[in-house]
Amino acid sequence: MSEPRRSNVTRWVALGAGLVLVAVVVAFATQIGGEPAVNRPSPLLGKDAPAFDLPVLDASGEQVSLDALRGKAVIINFWNSWCIPCREEEPNLKAFYEAHANDTDVVMIGILRDDTVSSGRRWADERDLDWMLVEDPGGKAALAYATRGQPETYAISTDGVVVGSQLGPVTVENLEALLAAARGTA
Amino acid sequence: MTAALGVLSIAAAASACVVGITLLGLGLQRRDARLLRMGRRSVFVLLVAAIAAVGMMEWALVTHDFSLDYVANNNARATPLLFSITGLWASLEGSILLWGLVLAGYLAVTAWRLRDRATDPIVAWATIVGLAVALFFFAIMLGPANPFQVVSGATPADGTGPNPLLQNHPLMAFHPPMLYLGYVGFTVPFSFAIASLITGRLDEGWLADTRRTTLVAWGFLTVGIVLGGWWSYEVLGWGGFWAWDPVENASLLPWLTATAFIHSVITQERRGMLRVWNLSLVIATFCLTILGTFITRSGVIDSVHAFTQSSIGPWFLTFLGVSALGGIGLIAWRGDRLRSPGRVDAPMSRESAFLANNLLFASFAFVVLLGTVFPLLVEAVQGRQMSVGRPYFDRMTVPLGLALLFLMAAAPALPWRATTGEVIRRRLAVPAWIGAVTMVATVVFLGGGPGLVLAFGLGAFAATGIVRSLLVGVRARRTATGERLPRASWGMLRANPRLYGGLVVHLGVVCIAVAIAAFGSFSTHSELRLERGQSADVGGYTVTYLDSGVERTDQKTTVTADVRVERGTRDLGVYRPAISTFPNATTGIGTPSVRTGPFQDVYLTLVSSPTDQGRITLGVSVNPLVVWLWIGGGVMALGTALALVPAKKTNPALTRSPGAPRAPAAEPSEPERAPVGGQA
Amino acid sequence: MNVLGRRWAWAMLGMVVVATLAWVAWPQDGESAEERAHRIASELRCVECEGLSVADASTSTARATRDEIDERIEAGESDAEIRQAYIDRYGERILMNPTSSGLGVIVWVLPVVVVALGGAGVAFAVRRRHGAPRNVATPADEALVGAVADRSRGEPHAASRTFDGDPLLDERDFLLRSLDDLDAEYATGEVDAETYQVLRADYTARAASMLRGLAGDDPPPDSEPSVSWQRRALVLGVVVVFAGVAGVMLAFALGARLPGGLPTGDDLQVSPDEREQRLRQAVADNPDDPSAYLALASFLEGEDIVGALEAYDTAARLDPADPVPLAQAGWLLFFSATATDDTEQRTALLEGARERLDAAVLADADYPDARFYRGMVLYRGYGDAEAAIPELQRFLVLAPDHPLAEQGRDVLAEAVAASN
Questions:
Q1: Which residue of A76, B170, C168, C186 sits 20 to 30 Å from the alpha carbon of C349, by its own alpha carbon?
Q2: Which residue from A61, A60, A49 is spatially nearest to A155, judged by alpha carbons?
Q3: How far is CA C381 from the centre of its chain?
Q4: Which residues of C touch B419 (CB under 8 A)?
Q5: Does pLDDT of C160 surpass 50?
Q6: Looking at residue C341, which CATH number applies to its domain?
Q7: How far is B347 from chain C (nearest CA, A)?
Q8: How many distinct structural domains can be found in chain A?
Q9: Which residue in C has a C-alpha nearest to residue A150's C-alpha?
Q10: Could you tell me if C294 and C315 are in contact, meaning their C-beta atoms sit under 8 angstroms apart?
Q11: Given pLDDT bands bounded at 50, 70 and 90, which one contains residue B9?
Q12: Does some domain include residue C222?
């Protein structure tokens, strides 16, 4: 009789579809509650920090080059004048800078990202941001560091390797942890 | 107070579902007509409770009642009235509430329409399934997704307002409700399919019962998707209308299976075939709507639509699993009874065309589904992150789309059962030649790749075929009844609204296909650096940067640029693209300004605000035929409405009598006939 | 137009279509640099946006990336090199298209397989039935069917409300209904005379045999011609193989890398970066395999001490019984300690070194390297010559021909002299 044969086909197909469905649902289930994108670590972690040679923001004509800072623990902070999380972290950056102002092995650099130079300058003057501030013509450094937004902070070890990163506003504890990683004392 | 009433309404709704399911279940078991009728009435109680809950929420939104978490997060004192009202669907909890209301509405309408068949087991089972789905949604609102959650601590003085992206265009008022009217509507045919499987009554009755609902839901979903594309183009500012974003795909997937379904049911009605296909398609459509909600709301896949990440993910996943496995299980259980008595008599027949149609749509849906969930699966299995983007989808779906276009053109010309070359030649020769000539003309005058040439050629083929069918039908009717043209047209439509409404929908599809092809091949994009007063020539237009302005509010800072667009000597007006920066966003959000023309759009974006030297970077795109996307969508909506016109019994002069000689000159239009099975 | 003329017309139509398509599909002249830049940009994802390519996005990073792509094209880099540069920087998820080895291929191949299988299924179903010999209705058949139909003409077939779902009854009623429908369609001209005759005979014969079967005269017929399962399996196998090959070719054409394959167009030298990437990939692919971490760690020792230490520690964690990662980590820490001037840091590093070396010796007392390292740490690090001597001696006993044996002897001599 042909009926059982047809129903067999339907049943086999249904069984197969059911198994595939179960597998897919299980796969989905394992992904619920996963880390949102913003917490994923920087892809540069563990790699050599990209070199840069950028002009200082205050138009004095000086250049800051990463190569010249070999041997020091470098904290790089991408910021600008209009993003609110940048403003949130500003007092933390200031406190951190003051705490380590006399440490010769620590360098803190702020790189302006996605902003006009005049706005950045104006902001830095108004707010007394004393650490080294540079501009990033063409957004090349932001690109080289695979930044995903701002503020974004990187820690570079004494031998030029990216050892830490954070997307979003940093607290003083975060900064100290980044510094420890950069110094190699983590 | 509002919160308490709201929660009470939701609880009442959920209780109505439980009571209804219990009564109907008992009534079925004991074959007690009275219980069945009582159970049916719970659907109306559900509707009243849902309306009450929505009413409470809207009241809270309009009166800016910030003691509710939802209102505090999606509304502010400064929010205009329209966006307060549309705040109902601004984020998760409210969307679920809207879903519940729409579902209650559909269930109530169905219950009322079938009021004479309250004791029919199929109707009872379908109501049970419908109530079970409603119970899920209302139960979720009593738990993880409570829209009436009260703010913990002090009532804030002001809310944070809706997401800015959702506020700057009144279109936001229509896009989600249209989509929901579409999605939720498919619950009705789904419930009837399950009912028919459970009761073992696998003939065509359930199709007839749900035909109109399915078409209405499909129409709304189509409009919702087209509106989404319009929003993407006009508001999001990235220059396109479809990015194969996971949430966009989530709305497209049920549309694909639903389109296959509404075509395939015709085959089951006429010839009793493709039963397993139809049951599978409608179950798949329902499951895909649940999957879509899961993808959109659980944060599992990164997407521009993923505004919130919430804890309802596991619930939806479980519901999806239960529905899908239940459907599959039922089909497997009834496998022996699903064998159709009809079979395909010839490879060149409308039956095989519909079978091919099902295959193509199913494959299309498979490709979209695979591409959307594949990154998720890879991450689950290997922990790696991989992405599937636009190039993949474009590459895989274009051939399927072109094949569907061809089928759309050729299939209506194929008769049922079998055909000869003579019939096909008569019906398709002229359209085919026009299609071929269009292909050659496209190559000669426009250039472009094989995709474009095929799209234009097939579009011409299809359009000519449709126009021909319409003309022939009108002429046949006029010959038979002697009516004037307008009356004959309307009469022809009334005689067979599904056919002619469907042809109009196909015309809309042709518009959209041609527009998509033209956009893909001929749109141009340039970035210009302009100083104040400077002009540039792009694609035959002259754009002049006039001035810029800055607008600061508490919520955002907006930089605008005034740009004049001229074509030759004709001034087309001043347009104002903008960039807005929001407090918590890490990048600016652009707003385009579009000059819409019948054949070309000029699409302006402000790429970067004025530099220190006062220069802006202006993005200028010239996009061909974009307006025909929206027109095509409108035509599809019109066609759907025409297809819903109630059929009128034909003029007796047209009724065939067996044995009467054929009228040689008259082209047969589809004769009015009762669907197979004797159901009205 | 006669039949031949019509055939020629269709043939010409077909030729026009094919010729046009061939014309446009013919490979054109190469794309301009601008087009090439746009194409490459459309294959890269914009990291700040969701779902947009670098070509479509308007963020500052996207613009900077487009500028960078232009520069790279001018510098003469190939498409694959440019893509790889971004993969190196961001990881694989920067690509819009899944192109990597392993699972990525599935997403290209599977749709082709599914469509091919589905198409084959449909064609199979349609053709098989068409190829079945048409039933011919005998006069007896006609009479039998005619009697039934006449009796119930004018009423809706009672079976239209049959809810008991007996498939045989369904089929009988369906065939009778189909006869009526066929007559109606013939009357309106939808079906031509030849087809009408053939189908009518078919339906009548089938209905008649159904009726006989139901009346018990004959056994009910097989309504579907049977096909041997061998034939089915063969066809299925051919389709799957064909589709698989087509899918693989499609994947190749679109730049996918197949397992073990190389990106097309690249040269074959293994740069250190690539080697590192492979090692990291191995670690990612085998997160529970300590040897993958060991390999990565040895590679990283020269340049990325932090990374190497991490990897060693992970390997040690995965296999606590293995002295090698512990010993190597200890040595690295000692090495770092000697390189630093900060006393605090030095102490900490030495502590870490000693801890690990103690653990290494515990794990395997006869592992010579651990003994040597521990001796060095004790003597050079802590200045404890007395404790160092037995370690170094043990080392030399265990492995007198070790590459470090020479150094071991020297240090031992020194320590002995110092302790006296």
A1: A76
A2: A49
A3: 51
A4: 195
A5: no
A6: 1.25.40.10
A7: 6
A8: 2
A9: C48
A10: yes
A11: very high
A12: no
Distances (CA, A) of C64 to A57, A147, B563, B586, C71: 20, 12, 25, 17, 11
**From CA C286, how far away is CA C292, in angstroms rounded?**
7
Out of B294, B336, B586, whose CB is closest to A149?
Answer: B586
Nearest of B327, B259, B256 to residue B292 by alpha carbon: B256
**The total number of structural domains that make up chain C:** 4
Domain containing residue A135: CATH number: 3.40.30.10
pLDDT digits (tens, 9 = 90+) for A111-148: 998 877 888 888 888 888 888 899 888 788 888 888 87
**What integer pLDDT is reported at residue C129 of this predicted model?**
55
The reply to whether C264 falls in a domain is: no
C351 contact partners, CB below 8 Å, separation of at least 6: none
**Could you tell me the residue range of the domain that residue A176 belongs to?**
38-183
Contact criterion met (CB < 8 Å) for C42 and B240: no
- Taking residues A177-184, what's their average pLDDT? 84
Residue C206: C-alpha distances to residues B203, C134, C170, C222 (Å): 21, 10, 13, 10
Domain boundaries, chain B: 1-168, 180-325+361-404, 526-627
Give the pLDDT band of residue B301 (cuts 50, 70, 90).
Answer: low
Residue C347 predicted with pLDDT over 70: yes
Same domain, C18 and C37: no
R_g (Cα) of chain B, nearest Å:
27
Query: CB B328 to CB A17 under 8 A?
Result: yes
Share of chain C above pLDDT 70, in %: 75
Q: Which residue has the higher pLDDT, B525 or B343?
A: B525
User: Does B245 sit within 8 Å of C51, measured CB to CB?
Assistant: yes
Tell me how far the alpha carbon of residue A84 is from its chain's centroid.
16
Q: Is the pLDDT of residue C60 over 80?
A: no
Residue among C8, C15, C24, C178 with most chain B CBs within 10 A, to mutate: C24
- Residue B362, helix vs strand vs coil: helix
Contact C51 B303 (CB under 8 A): yes
- In Å, the largest CA–CA distance within chain C is 127
Per-residue three-class SS string for B404-450: HHHHHHHHHHCCCCCCCHHHHHHHHHHHHHHHHHHHHHHHHHHCCCH
pTM over 0.80: no
Query: How far is the first Cα of chain C from the last one, in angstroms, to the nearest whole number?
Result: 121
**Residues of A in Cβ contact (< 8 Å) with B332:** 10-11, 14-15, 18
**Looking at this protein, which amino acid is placed at residue C401?**
D
Contact C65 A143 (CB under 8 A): yes
Range of the domain at C208: 133-215
Higher per-residue pLDDT: B662 or B229: B229
Q: For residue C417, is pLDDT > 60?
A: yes
pLDDT at C154 over 50: no
Cβ atoms of B24 and B118 closer than 8 Å: no
With H, G, I as helix, E, B as strand and everything else as coil, classify residue B647: coil
Q: Name the residue among C322, C266, C337 with its Cα closest to residue C290.
A: C322
* Mean pLDDT along residues B202-228: 89
d(CA C236, CA C117): 8
- Can you give the pLDDT at residue B185? 95
Q: Choose, out of C45, C47, C299, the residue to mutate when testing the contact with A (most A CBs < 10 Å).
A: C47
Does the interface ipTM go beyond 0.90?
Answer: no
pLDDT at C130 exceeding the cut of 60: no
Identify the burial level of C43 via C-beta atoms within 10 angstroms of its C-beta, where 0-12 means exposed, 13-18 middle and 19 or more buried.
Answer: buried
Neighbours of chain A (3+ CB pairs under 8 A): B, C
Residues of A with CB below 8 A from B294's CB?
28
Average pLDDT over residues C229-247: 70
Q: Structure tokens of C196?
A: 């009408």
User: Is C161 within the bounds of a domain?
Assistant: yes
C374 vs C363: CA distance, rounded Å? 14
pLDDT value of residue A88: 82
